[in-house]
Amino acid sequence: MGKIILTGDRPTGNLHIGHFVGSVQNRLKLQEQGDFEKFYIMIADTQAMTDNADNPDKVRKNVIEVALDYLGAGIDSKKVNMFIQSQVPELAEITMYFLNLVTVSRLTRNPTVKDEIKQRGFNASLPVGFMCYPISQASDILAFNSTCVPVGEDQLPMIEQTREIARTFNHTYKEIFTLPEPLLPDNKTCLRLVGTDGSLKMSKSAGNCIYLKDEPDVIKTKVMNCYTDSNHIKISDPGKVEGNVVFAYLDAFATDESFKKYLPEYKNLTELKNHYKKGGLGDVKIKMFLNNILQETLEPIRKRRKEYEKNIDEIYSMLFENAKKAREVAAETIEKMKSAMGLDYYHKSL
Ligand code: ATP
Ligand code: MG
């Protein structure tokens, strides 16, 4: 049996370069390799509602934005089943059964959820749905019997939780779930790309993003405002590359080719870093270099996206048809689950 891939994003804003290097690039690679049985990309609107219940309009609007970002980035809707989570209600039913297989104390130990709760300042107003989203995410993954989940590093605790749920189900009732594996980017910087402010991971909720759809002048302004090293005041001062956002992005995007094209006086990133550390290399120069690379990377994505923007109705009908197919698969999983749990009152012979 080939790979079954499932991955997705929350429609809480447009996709940014953190998504691109953290998971979209791996998705594109998998799509091109083609050695999969099924490939699903889910726009997780139900999950987005867990911390946006008072703002469904934001979620609704961003569903099409995220779909356009995927298509712009090169996701091929003929090869990949792209669907909207809420349009597959079977996922909610699966969640109801999984909720019973996880303890409250296990949920509260999830480090990503802990960080997110802090970041959002929920305190006593923490919605139960938000607390439980890792369980709903496990349902999304297991509903399709996914074997491979391309994600950024912050999602590792979710995959671990999913594997635990699968194991518990298999052990308690019957062996029906395969344990999924995460697929992380090879490049360490891309595991958790830092935001332009240098303090947190780049995240839609933190407002520290360079978006795939940003126009050239916006990209340039954001690059010029990136955090570098607050002690690197004069060009002659030695500079730090650790914690320096420009170097983090260069780690993620610069190739030897980029040097040949835009900065031929250096052979590669190691040489550039060494010069910066020694002193004598100004921030404007490295920022201009980064700007050139990002402009080159994002231009084709933005152009393709603009073409797709002319056919919004077609995109919605593609999402509609795909959800129907996804429902069929998820319904089969529910049948198997109910049979394993003995809740198959009318089909004992199945
Ligand atoms: P939100 O702030 O609403 O949670 P987000 O920017 O964190 O949004 P998600 O939709 O939660 O984005 O994440 C989607 C996928 O992108 C996940 O697999 C996640 O690991 C990956 N990802 C998100 N941000 C980054 C980042 N800065 N670096 C690498 N991967 C990332
Ligand atoms: Mg997130």
Q: Your description of this structure?
A:
With 350 residues, this protein is mainly α. The chain has 2 domains: 4-192 and 312-349, Rossmann fold, CATH 3.40.50; 216-306, Orthogonal Bundle (Tyrosyl-Transfer RNA Synthetase), CATH 1.10.240. The protein has helices spanning 17-33, 45-49, 56-73, 90-98, 104-108, 111-120, 128-131, 133-143, 156-172, 216-224, 245-253, 256-262, 269-278, 283-308, 312-341, and strands at 3-9, 36-43, 81-84, 148-150, 181-183. The strands form 2 sheets. It has a 3-stranded parallel beta sheet. The model has no long low-confidence stretch (mean pLDDT 95).
List keywords for this structure.
350 residues, mainly alpha, Rossmann fold, Tyrosyl-Transfer RNA Synthetase, 2 domains, three-stranded parallel beta sheet, two-stranded parallel sheet, binds adenosine-5'-triphosphate, binds magnesium ion
Please outline the helices and strands:
Blueprint: E1 3-9, H1 17-33, E2 36-43, H2 45-49, H3 56-73, E3 81-84, H4 90-98, H5 104-108, H6 111-120, H7 128-131, H8 133-143, E4 148-150, H9 156-172, E5 181-183, H10 216-224, H11 245-253, H12 256-262, H13 269-278, H14 283-308, H15 312-341
Parallel strand pairs: 1-2, 2-3, 4-5
Helix pairs in contact: 3-14, 4-8, 4-15, 8-9, 10-14, 11-14
Bound molecules: adenosine-5'-triphosphate and magnesium ion.
Residues 9-10, 12, 18-19, 22-23, 151-152, 154-155, 192-193, 201-205 line the site of adenosine-5'-triphosphate.
